[in-house]
Design brief:
Layout (H helix, E strand, L loop, with lengths): L5 E4 L15 H34 L8 H31 L7 H28 L3 H18 L7 H15 L4 E3 L22 E5 L1 H7 L12 H11 L3 H20 L1
Helix pairs in contact: 1-2, 1-3, 2-3, 2-4, 2-6, 3-4, 5-8
Length: 264
């Protein structure tokens, strides 16, 4: 039974056998745009840091800053923090469109956690200089902003080409093509547009596309096999006449196939 809700196509799906994940030209372009904006915001965060450092550098260590100047300095650091987090959010969004491969562990780490590195760059020099100039309150606040900005910038759900490919392979095995459904805020993707979990009155619009499309358009979906709706998974396996053991074998096969590519 088809859904009576509005279904918006993110893409038309894909039935090409998956050897590895390759982002579409559109996804590449989106990733490039978000990365450009993210780097721009990070650059502005560094500018704010430099302004704060200039103020501190000119300060006589033996004379406290005036209250108004201290407030201005803290406000500049707050702007630095906001720009940092905004840039990191865009960078993480870009990685959903064009994830890194786990084959290159160093690149995989830096592509996914670059925001944390920028957080250190954007605040640590201020922290050091503030304590040298005996502005301990400013230094402490800068340190807190660095830690908070780093935590906010860290990607705890790191996407990878291998994870995308493994899940796309399982979906193709179950349904014949890489075409799934989801919502803007749900934490799962679905194989059927009339899944019981998409029938809620709160759901007014459903999006359809490949597994990668759903990940790119909803950051709440974790890039892991368990993000596939279990009800849809069992329904599709039943339609194919698979037992629970055969379903588990298909999942393990999809995961292991791309795990081997990392180890090669």
């Amino acid at each position: 039974m088809a859904t009576n809700k509005k279904v918006t196509k993110v893409s038309g799906g894909d039935n090409t056998p998956r050897q590895t994940f390759v982002p579409s030209a559109g996804a590449k372009a989106q990733a490039g745009k978000f990365r450009m904006y993210g780097v721009l915001l990070w650059g502005l965060a560094i500018v704010a840091e430099v302004i704060a450092m200039v103020i501190l550098f000119k300060k006589n260590p033996e004379i406290d800053l005036s209250t108004s100047m201290r407030i201005i300095l803290i406000a500049i650091l707050l702007v630095d923090l906001v720009l940092l987090i905004a840039g990191s959010w865009l960078w993480k969004k870009a990685n959903r469109f064009d994830p890194a491969s786990k084959k290159d562990a160093l690149r995989f780490f830096f592509q996914n956690q670059l925001g944390v590195v920028v957080a250190v760059i954007a605040f640590l020099p201020v922290v050091i200089l503030a304590f040298i100039k005996k502005e301990y309150l400013v230094g402490a606040i800068a340190a807190l902003f660095m830690i908070g900005g780093g935590l906010a910038s860290a990607d705890r759900n790191q996407p990878s080409k291998e994870e995308y490919a493994a899940q796309s392979t399982l979906v193709q095995d179950l349904m014949g093509q890489d075409l799934v459904y989801g919502t803007k805020s749900g934490s799962k993707y679905h194989l059927y547009d009339d899944c019981q979990y998409l029938k809620s009155d709160k759901t007014t619009e459903i999006f359809s596309g490949t597994v990668a499309d759903l990940y790119a358009n909803n950051h709440k979906i974790k890039p892991e096999m368990s993000s596939l709706c279990s009800a849809c998974e069992k329904r599709a396996a039943k339609a194919k006449g698979w037992t629970d053991e055969q379903l588990q074998e298909a999942k393990e096969k999809a995961i292991n196939a791309f795990q081997k590519t990392i180890e090669e």
